[in-house]
Design a protein that fits this description.
Helix content of chain B: 40-55%
Strand order of the largest sheet of chain B: 1-2-3-4-5-6-7
Number of domains of chain A: 2
CATH architecture of the largest domain in chain A: 3-Layer(aba) Sandwich
CATH class of chain B: Alpha Beta
CATH class of the largest domain in chain A: Alpha Beta
Strand content of chain A: 5-15%
Number of helices of chain A: 9
Oligomer: heterodimer
Strand order of the largest sheet of chain A: 2-1-3-4-5
CATH topology of chain B: TIM Barrel
Radius of gyration of chain B: 19 Å
Helix content of chain A: 55-70%
CATH architecture of chain B: Alpha-Beta Barrel
Largest interface: A-B, 22 and 30 residues
Largest sheet of chain A: 5 strands, parallel
Strand content of chain B: 5-15%
Structural class of chain A: alpha/beta
Distance between the termini of chain B: 16 Å
Chain lengths: 214, 347
C-alpha cells in the first residue's frame, strides 16, 4: 500500500477513535519499511489536529477527544520503538500541571495531548501541584514553557503568586495559563505570557512563545 | 409582596411586584462570613453556623431567598462513597476519590440508610433552624450536585466521559443509582421545609458533553427526578449550555440557572415558551469576583433589561467576592423597580 494511503488510514482511525485500526495501520507502515516519524507526525498527529478542529467547531466533545487520543496512543505504541535515536525533534520542553489546591485535569490532559502531538516534550506534574514543585521541575528539565491550569477562581489566584516565582528562577521561561475562569484579562493581570481559549489553539500559541524567546 | 411570595409566584411564572434577586448557587462568600460571624469550614458541618451563613444572604447580601444544605455540591457523592478533600475558609469541599474508577459498577448501589450518611443529619437540623427563623417570610432552597455530575464523581470524570461512548450501559447503571439517591435527597429536603430544590450538573454541560449525549443520558433521568419530586426543581449548569437549554426545559422543571457564556435572550425565549423560569446570569468568576460594583450593576441591569425571571450570579459566588459587588445586584433591581434602598434586613 502506498505511504499516503497508510497515513490516511492512520489519520482516519484516530479521528474515528478506532484503536485497532490505528494499531494495524502503524504495523503496516513499519512492515512496508516507511519512516515511523512520518507516521507519527502526518498520520497520528495529523489525525489529532483534525480532532482538535472538530473539538473547536463543537462537533466533537470531550468523550470523543479522549477516545481519539487513545487511538493515537495505540498507534504511537507501535511506532515509537522504531524511531531512530534523536529523530524525534522537539519544538520545546513544557511543564504542565493543575495549580495547587485544584484537582481538575481533563482540560490540562487535552492540552498535554495536543502539545505532544504538536512536537513538544511534555512533563505532566499532575494535579494539586505545589508552587515549589512547578519551579523545581521547570528548572530541572529546562522548560521553555510552563503551563498552569485551574478550574476555580480560588485556585486561579494561586497563579498570581506562582508566576513571579517561575520568572525569578528563569526569566526566559514562558508561562501559559488556562482553565475555565482564565480570561485574556487575567492573563494580563497575572503577567502570564500566553493563553489559548481552546486546546485546539494551544500548539500555535506554544510555538509563538518559543519563537519569541529565541 | 413578601420575598417568599415573590419567589414562589415567579417560579410559577405568575405576576410579581419586582424581579426577585438572590443566588441559586452556593454563596459561601468571605464577606458574608465576616459580617455574620459564621465561617466556613465550620458552616459546612455545624447546623447553627450553616444556617447563620445562609441567613446572611438575606440579612446582609440583599437576597430575596436563602440556601439550605451547605456550601458545595459534594454531599450526595460523599454519601455514595466519594471521599472529600480538605476544606478551608475559602476552599470548598471537593471530590478527592472516585471509588468506581477501578471498582465494578455492579457494586454501586444506593444504600438503604442514605439519609443517615454524610451531612444529611446536619442538613435536617439546619432546615429546622431556618424554618424557625424565617418562617413564611423567605423562601429556602435545597441544593446538591445533579445525577450526571454525581455519577462522574463516583467513576472519575475521564472514565465517565469515555463511557458515554464505550460503555453506555455502565453510564446508565451509574445514573440509575444517582437518580434514585437524588429523588430521596430531594424529597427529604421538601419534607424538611425546602420551597424549591436546585441541582447543579456542570459535568453534563456542553463544555464537556455533546448535546446528543445530554439527550440520551441526562434528559431521561432528569425527567424522572422532576416527575418524582415533591416540589419545584431548578437545574443549574454552568459553561456552555445554549444547545441543551431546550432539552433542559423539556424535562418538566420549574427553572434553569445559566451563566454569562449562555445567551440569556435566547434562553428566556426558549424557556418561557415551555413555561420555565430563568435564573442568571451575572458573571461570578469575573465581574462579581474581580470587577467593580459599577460593572456588577451594569451586568445586573442588562439581565433585568432582558427580563430575566430571577436576577442571580451565573454560578457559585467566589469566596473573595466583595460585598459591594454582591449588593450591586440588589441595587440594580431596587433602582429599576424604585424600591427603597437596601440597608440590611432583620429576621
Amino acid at each position: 500500500m502506498p505511504l499516503a494511503e497508510i497515513l490516511k488510514t492512520m489519520h482516519d482511525a484516530v479521528v474515528g477513535f478506532d484503536d485497532e485500526g490505528a494499531r494495524k495501520a502503524a504495523e503496516q507502515l513499519i512492515a512496508e519499511g516507511f519512516d515511523p516519524f512520518t507516521g507519527i507526525m502526518e498520520g497520528l498527529a495529523g489525525g489529532m489536529n483534525t480532532v482538535g478542529e472538530l473539538f473547536k467547531k463543537q462537533e466533537y466533545f470531550v468523550p470523543e477527544v479522549l477516545l481519539c487520543a487513545e487511538a493515537m496512543n495505540a498507534g504511537l505504541a507501535v511506532l515509537s520503538p522504531h524511531l531512530k535515536a534523536g529523530e524525534a525533534r522537539s519544538e520545546g520542553t513544557v511543564i504542565i500541571g493543575t495549580v495547587q489546591g485544584d484537582i481538575h485535569d481533563i482540560g490540562k490532559n487535552l492540552v498535554k495531548m495536543m502539545l505532544e502531538v504538536g512536537g513538544f516534550k511534555v512533563h505532566d506534574l499532575g494535579v494539586d501541584v505545589p508552587h515549589e514543585k512547578f519551579v523545581e521541575e521547570a528548572v530541572r528539565v529546562k522548560a521553555d514553557i510552563v503551563g498552569v491550569s485551574s478550574m476555580m477562581t480560588t485556585t486561579m489566584m494561586g497563579m498570581k503568586k506562582l508566576i513571579p516565582m517561575l520568572k525569578e528562577a528563569n526569566p526566559k521561561v514562558a508561562v501559559m495559563i488556562g482553565g475555565a475562569p482564565v480570561t485574556p484579562a487575567i492573563v494580563k493581570m497575572f503577567k502570564a505570557d500566553g493563553f489559548a481559549a481552546s486546546a485546539a489553539d494551544v500548539v500555535v500559541e506554544a510555538k509563538r512563545l518559543v519563537a519569541a524567546a529565541n | 409582596m413578601k420575598p417568599k411570595e415573590r419567589v414562589m409566584r415567579r417560579l410559577k411564572r405568575q405576576e410579581v411586584d419586582m424581579t426577585p434577586v438572590g443566588c441559586t448557587t452556593a454563596y459561601g462568600a468571605l464577606c458574608l462570613m465576616k459580617a455574620s460571624g459564621y465561617e466556613r469550614p465550620l458552616a459546612d458541618h455545624d447546623p447553627v453556623a450553616m444556617a447563620g451563613l445562609a441567613l446572611a444572604g438575606y440579612t446582609i447580601g440583599g437576597f430575596d431567598w436563602i440556601k439550605a444544605m451547605g456550601w458545595d455540591i459534594t454531599a450526595v457523592s460523599e454519601a455514595l462513597g466519594c471521599e472529600l478533600g480538605k476544606a478551608a475558609i475559602d476552599v470548598q469541599h471537593f471530590i478527592a476519590t472516585h471509588p468506581f474508577e477501578s471498582r465494578s459498577l455492579d457494586e454501586l448501589e444506593c444504600p438503604p440508610d442514605l439519609l443517615s450518611r454524610g451531612r444529611f443529619p446536619v442538613y435536617k437540623e439546619q432546615f429546622r433552624i431556618l424554618k424557625e427563623k424565617v418562617g413564611d417570610e423567605v423562601a429556602i432552597f435545597g441544593m446538591s450536585e445533579g445525577p450526571f455530575t454525581c455519577a462522574a464523581n463516583l467513576m472519575g470524570t475521564s472514565k465517565m466521559m469515555r463511557s458515554t461512548i464505550k460503555d453506555p450501559a455502565g453510564v446508565e447503571k451509574a445514573l440509575a443509582v444517582t437518580t434514585e439517591a437524588l429523588i430521596q435527597v430531594i424529597n427529604f429536603a421538601f419534607s424538611q421545609g425546602a420551597d424549591y430544590y436546585c441541582m447543579a450538573d456542570p459535568t453534563s454541560g456542553s463544555t464537556l458533553l455533546s448535546p446528543r449525549s445530554w439527550d440520551r443520558f441526562v434528559k431521561p433521568v432528569m425527567t424522572k427526578i422532576v416527575e418524582r419530586s415533591n416540589g419545584p426543581i431548578v437545574l443549574h449548569i454552568c459553561g456552555e449550555t445554549d444547545k441543551i437549554i431546550p432539552s433542559m426545559c423539556d424535562t418538566g422543571l420549574a427553572g434553569i440557572s445559566i451563566e454569562e457564556k449562555a445567551d440569556l435572550k435566547l434562553a428566556l425565549e426558549v424557556a418561557h415558551a415551555k413555561g420555565v423560569a430563568v435564573f442568571g446570569n451575572v458573571a461570578a468568576a469575573t465581574t462579581l469576583f474581580m470587577g467593580s460594583p459599577e460593572e456588577c450593576y451594569k451586568e445586573s441591569q442588562a439581565a433585568l433589561e432582558c427580563d430575566v425571571d430571577f436576577l442571580a450570579p451565573g454560578c457559585g459566588l467566589a469566596p473573595a467576592s466583595p460585598l459591594e459587588n454582591i449588593l450591586a445586584m440588589r441595587k440594580a433591581r431596587d433602582d429599576k423597580f424604585k424600591a427603597p434602598e437596601f440597608k440590611g434586613a432583620t429576621l
